[in-house]
């Protein structure tokens, strides 16, 4: 079974090395003898973290894909093009493809799935969400008979690392981000991670697979973590919550689906609250199965390469048997607007320390039917004289109502600014 | 696709109902139309939790298995016989079998796997370990290319419920057990759960699948939780640990394997420590993938039936394609004796409150090369005058050395008794 690998970077290089290491044990378990036929790279001379036999390297990606000796193609280049074109070329030639390319799948997944089904070969992508954690296969296979109602994931390790450092070491956002950058967890331009774009792409893939309807990255509402302050984290902790950036895909009773990424307050007793550092986890709620969680390394060369290699073994076994795992076809999802979702909210306001302010703010909440669960005035050591902080937790309220309420609160003379607004993941998930 | 179900109890009855509920969505996703052809029961007249069409019921199990109209057999009877005989009969007739029978698999698994491979059909058993949690499939498929070094599981919900109640509510063991019994989590005779037999059977199955070598229930060392006291739980908590009943399967560099079940001290920061109530979780360490954890409902009719139905859909799809998931053949494992394992230990001694006692005890540790990491004398409000409690945490030590040490300590005149001895799961798992 000859494998062609596109790309030899963070995932491609460890994959080549892992195939070498695991060849004997894979053959013993499955009878399949994997061999890397060629590795397509941009430049032959570049230094690599893992030593690769120079005779395997080629700069001709199209030649690799169409080489009749290559039975199976692994794409580790990332990005939309040329990855998309190369994958379609391989599928057209009836070669199974394994990829970890979340950006591509979140934008062109169903097109690629259809091409794979049309050629009767596998397109597998376990590593695209949650790195080394098996998520896609359990969703597609183990839970094939399950009515999944909600999936909530910590699917971006960079932001989880930053939030963990803020929570456990009391760092502010900027210092935690700087630490993540110095450790190589965050890019120099961290936007894709900290503003929720990366998590949004993964959420689109999760929703597509969990609910069987087409959801693309552009359908996903996203908010990032750059506005989270130490006060929010401390206050959440005192109330019994951790702040996590969650990717949430939900299906409602009417069949509509909502997919979003935003920071949320998660009760300390919830399994997602204990996911620390750069670890990822995906929490699944199903009607019969109840609650499930899958936890592990969501990124990193070897964990990701391990998931890719699991897919390679599977696709190779299917190719030998002349079968493939059909992903099914995907109609468009009926997407529910964020405005129509409900949630409890944490609202942090910077106000004048004057007697009328609470009445004015409470009036705005009341006029839009947002009822208050609790309110606390917080005194900060470093507050300017005459200012205070009001922290509200609301009962379940519609997003649209809260938005209008906040608009009105911003207009109040006694309110200097609206700080963080966070959704609260209640105990409802715990008690199903 | 006509399904014959053996047994209509805690799992069988919800399964029949779930097949009914999910038929349309399964057909839409996979093209497979599942129909329950017959349900074999002991007595036709018994009352059932789920209403079952009376015309499906039969008392003729062998007739159900050999009925040419039955394409696929689900075994939910439990126990060794007649489950074993019926499964072999179905496999011989080239019918795929799905079972959740841990006792049978932990004793005759490889014999049954061989029969399935011989007939070229599936024998699937996702629900045998961890109820609704996908564990077997990820181990067999997603991690097919992974060198797994250790699996640690909380695989018995009853004992985890008892330990959670002891820890969170300060109950003693007897009261927590009584509560578990009143809620239906524990049997009237709780031995199989609290003494680790149930977890031992699951550990044998996990080890067999994770390491590809035959391990049976009788190979598994087990200790239960009935000796755990409130003092142990309080003291563990103060030191930063939770006490959990763990099933541990390890493979060492020389290829030998050790499989055991015992209570252990798990650091609060470890993902297993936050698994509460009757939830289960399986924590996997692999060379490339790092750490993974799978969490969910380890028991209960609907969660278990959901996992069984996932297997049914998979086996049905394979039957249609004329393929099957080979489990592989299993040689005997080279089992490492418990004596040769090393661990840090928590040792709780009831002693005379006299000046020489520590020297005597420390001497016994020292003579057998067990070095002490920390020692604390604990004063209990209800201690008899002139008595004290010494709590030791050792460095890594061989089990055999600790055993000899404890034997010697028991002989000391100043020691009235040896209380709990618990293995400490160190931070080593966290840092890989």
**Distance from first to last alpha carbon of chain A:** 46 Å
Q: pLDDT below 50 for ≥5 consecutive residues: which ranges of chain A?
A: 427-432
Q: Give the second-level CATH assignment, the architecture of the largest domain in chain A.
A: 3-Layer(aba) Sandwich
- Over all CA atoms, what is the radius of gyration of chain A? 24 Å
Quote the CATH topology of the largest domain in chain A. Rossmann fold
* Estimated share of beta-strand residues of chain A: 25-35%
* Number of alpha- plus pi-helical segments of chain A: 14
Overall SS class of chain A: alpha/beta
Main interface by residue count: A-B, 57 and 57 residues
Notes on the protein architecture:
2 copies of one chain form a homodimer. Chain A is of the alpha/beta class and 432 residues long. The first copy, chain A, folds into 3 domains: 163 residues, NAD(P)-binding Rossmann-like Domain (Rossmann fold), CATH 3.40.50.720; 157 residues, Dihydrodipicolinate Reductase, domain 2 (2-Layer Sandwich), CATH 3.30.360; 88 residues, Alpha-Beta Plaits (2-Layer Sandwich), CATH 3.30.70.260. The first copy, chain A, is 37% helix and 26% strand. In chain A, a hairpin with a 3-residue loop joins strand 12 and strand 13. In chain A, helix 6 crosses helix 7 and helix 12 packs antiparallel against helix 13. The longest helix of chain A has 21 residues. The first copy, chain A, is elongated. The first copy, chain A, starts with a strand and ends with a helix. The C terminus of chain A is likely disordered. At the A-B interface, helix 1, helix 5, strand 12, strand 13 and helix 11 of A face helix 1, helix 5, strand 12, strand 13 and helix 11 of B. Strand 13 of chain A pairs antiparallel with strand 13 of chain B.
């Amino acid at each position: 079974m000859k494998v062609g690998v596109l790309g030899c970077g963070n995932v491609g290089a460890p994959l080549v090395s892992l195939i070498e290491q695991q060849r004997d044990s894979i053959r013993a378990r499955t009878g399949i003898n994997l061999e890397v036929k060629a590795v397509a790279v941009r430049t032959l001379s570049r230094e690599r973290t893992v030593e690769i036999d120079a005779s395997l390297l080629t700069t001709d990606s199209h030649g690799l894909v169409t080489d009749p000796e290559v039975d199976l193609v692994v794409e580790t280049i990332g990005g939309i093009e040329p990855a998309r074109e190369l994958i379609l070329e391989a599928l057209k030639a009836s070669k199974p493809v394994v990829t970890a390319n979340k950006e591509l799948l979140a934008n062109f997944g169903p097109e690629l799935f259809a091409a794979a089904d049309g050629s009767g070969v596998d397109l597998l992508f376990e590593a695209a969400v949650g790195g080394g954690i098996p998520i896609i296969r359990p969703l597609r296979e183990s839970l094939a008979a399950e009515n999944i109602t909600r999936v909530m994931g910590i699917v971006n390790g960079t932001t989880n690392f930053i939030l963990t450092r803020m929570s456990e070491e009391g760092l502010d956002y900027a210092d935690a981000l700087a630490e993540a950058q110095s450790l190589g967890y965050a890019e120099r331009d961290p936007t894709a991670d900290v503003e929720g774009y990366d998590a949004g792409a993964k959420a689109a893939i999760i929703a597509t697979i969990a609910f069987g309807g087409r959801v693309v990255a552009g359908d996903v509402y996203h908010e990032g973590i750059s506005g989270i302050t130490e006060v929010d984290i401390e206050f959440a902790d005192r109330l019994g919550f951790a702040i996590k950036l969650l990717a949430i895909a939900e299906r409602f009773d009417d069949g509509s689906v909502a997919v979003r990424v935003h920071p949320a307050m998660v009760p300390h007793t919830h399994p997602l609250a204990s996911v620390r550092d750069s670890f990822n986890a995906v929490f699944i709620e199903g009607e019969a199965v109840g609650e499930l969680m899958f936890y592990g390394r969501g990124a990193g060369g070897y964990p990701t390469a391990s998931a890719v290699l699991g897919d390679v073994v599977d696709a190779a076994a299917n190719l030998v048997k002349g079968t493939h795992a059909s992903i099914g076809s995907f109609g468009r999802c009926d997407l529910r607007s964020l405005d129509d979702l409900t949630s409890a909210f944490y609202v942090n306001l910077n106000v004048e320390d004057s007697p009328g302010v609470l009445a004015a703010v409470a009036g705005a909440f009341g006029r839009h039917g947002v009822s208050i669960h609790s309110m606390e005035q917080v005194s900060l050591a470093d507050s300017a004289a005459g200012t205070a902080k009001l922290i509200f937790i609301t009962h379940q309220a519609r997003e649209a109502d809260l938005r209008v309420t906040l608009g009105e609160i911003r207009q109040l003379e006694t309110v200097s600014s609206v700080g963080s607004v966070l959704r609260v993941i209640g105990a409802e998930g715990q008690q199903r």
